[in-house]
Amino acid sequence: MSIFLELGQRPDEPGPPIHGPAGYPADVTARLRDDAAVIIARYPDSRSALLPLLHLVQAEDGYLTPAGIAFCAEQLDLTAAEVTAVATFYSMYRRTPTGDYLVGVCTNTLCAVMGGDAILETLEDHLGIGAGQSTPDGRITLEHVECNAACDYAPVVMVNWEFFDNQTPSSARDLVDALREGDLPTPSRSATLCTFRETARILAGLPHSDSTDDAGAVGPATLAGLLIARERGMSAPDTDGPPSDSTADGPGDEHAEAAEAVKDQPAPAPSADVPARGHTAETDPTATDTP
């Protein structure tokens, strides 16, 4: 039996260069400058404001454009190349026009095992678009996303970076249908779902009239390990305290003493004979002494 693993970008994952309008009208530039001044004032070094400024211009255009790149560069005294290098590194900055709701299906290991790939295929068929594309009405952009650190609720779908946990192909279809009809569902961990541009403005650190500080409570699946540890009286070792008592006679004592004896020594250098060590022709007729 053979297993094929496809690495790298999916064929349906275009990585186009940043394109679109080259500049903003004077009134838009003036408005963005006011917002940028609020953001930049929070940082002792102005260039540290680049990430939120990129969210700001993404909120304006729905994706990153040459106009947005030029605006950020001008505000922070950077070159367009420096801004572009950062903008194209992070996947949250879009290079293609994005719909009102960016629906991301996690297809990393655990979500894939739990059905993430099936959810993505179902949504592609249901919406009639591929990953990285938008519906004709501009309501939904579909994409597959990398791990969102929500493996305890796999498989996970995100809408404008809000979690929808424990999804199935059927529930994911209902989710996108509700988005298209304007009947906004409630995310698993917050009470508010904003449009993509509104979300980008919030990520820029600016208030939005419909946004609230409504982070939900931590769910039971996330706390399961902590609760078990407490029930069993388990705790993390005190790394700053004195060495543990080694007078007790137990099978781990000799290992602890050996570790203590070599803890400050450098690791051994690579050795060509390591693979054959302890497994040579004298002990195994099928082995050879050549590494």
Automatic annotation (TrEMBL):
NCBIfam families (alphabetical): nuoE_fam, PRK07539.1-1
Gene: nuoE_1
Organism taxonomic ancestry: Bacteria, Bacillati, Actinomycetota, Actinomycetes, Mycobacteriales
A Pfam family matched in the record: 2Fe-2S_thioredx
Domain of life: Bacteria
One Gene Ontology MF term: NADH dehydrogenase activity
Cofactor annotation: [2Fe-2S] cluster
Extent of Basic and acidic residues compositional bias: 252-263
Keywords attached to this entry: 2Fe-2S, Iron, Iron-sulfur, Metal-binding, Oxidoreductase
Enzyme class: oxidoreductase
CDD domains: TRX_Fd_NuoE
Family: Belongs to the complex I 24 kDa subunit family.
InterPro entries found in the cross-reference section: NuoE-like, NuoE_dom, NuoE_N, Thioredoxin-like_sf
Record's protein name: NADH-quinone oxidoreductase subunit E
